[in-house]
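#help-structures

NK: newbie question. if I give both the sequence and a SMILES, will the prediction place the ligand too? trying with pyridoxal-5'-phosphate
OV: yes, paste both and it writes out the complex. here, I ran yours:
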Amino acid sequence: MSNKRIYLSSPHMSEEGYEMRYIKEAFDTNWIAPLGKNVDEFEKEMASYIGVAHAAALVSGTAALHLAIKLCGVKQGDFVICSDLTFSATVNPVSYENGIQVFVDCEPDTWNMDPRALEKALKKYPHAKAVIVANLYGTPAKLDQISQLCSKYNVPLIEDAAESLGATYKGVQTGTFGKYAALSFNGNKIITTSGGGMFLANDMDAVKKVRFWATQARDPAPHYQHSEIGYNYRMSNVVAGIGRGQLKILEQHIAKKQQIYQMYKEGLKGLPLHMNPYDPSSKPNFWLSCILIDKDSPVTPTMIRETLEKQNIESRPIWKPMHMQPVFEKNEYITIENGRDFGRGIFERGLCLPSDVNMKEEEQIHVIGIIKGCF
Ligand SMILES: *Cc1c(COP(=O)(O)O)cnc(C)c1O
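OV: that's the protein plus ligand as structure tokens.
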């Protein structure tokens, strides 16, 4: 085996060169900036793939979440109920608007927001301005229960589908369950534009407002006139060209990621561990394959990660829960009962394995062999 590094999740451009074709078109027509055909078409193609009415292409998934938070009217001191076991970008935009995050523990079936704990949070904070749910590692949360609870308490749901593009819950795409949703095309995601994101909604006025804020909030006037604070959040036409090309191979990436997950599941059978679980009524996009080591095993995720690293193989701890982050130490954390903390357990005993679409079968067999050797 060559000593080429094996990555967690790295970019993969189409063999057919679709991305370059769209970029070349942008160059040939000099639509390098600001917007242009690739942006318009990428939005339309993505909205129709997911099954939402409208989309706005932005510089990042974080920008999409930020503008979703603004649309929900979050202001100084307002509460927003958030997934706890997630990447910080899910929850940081609440602070950009001076809101306060209330974190909700995950459940063991999907590692996502526990609807039981969510209901406790909604009872305690019925005036919360929004609920933000993330679909961790490409696995849909219990989205019907979560969206029903949000309707019951009349709090808008924002779906962070940054990791779950292409995953479905009861046959319906993630990114359609909330009032608003965010996608990410960051370098490590299932498809990438090098960096980028998208805001999704059925409400045309919401999408218009997002496009307005994202282009410096310019009022209709011949001079630069502003009645609101704006942002420079719009995706460029060159970047959107990469996205259009990548969208053509999204299904191919999902198939490969699923194959990687299955191979780990088979290859690691018999060891005291489990793969990241999913609800049988959902179809994840299998963005990252993860393991959770049984409680009584002396093997720790750190031992496995350090052993893999010595062989130039990348793995990563489970995203550290938000309630354990120093920056959020003052925020409230709601679990189904006192002392229960599923998120901490997953963080302490879990590990994200290399799930790169560029990984060859023999390389994955090599990774599996090393993991087995740790037990
Ligand atoms: C990547 C990610 C984001 C942020 O997307 P960017 O495009 O990197 O800003 C938000 N939420 C989750 C869960 C993510 O994994």
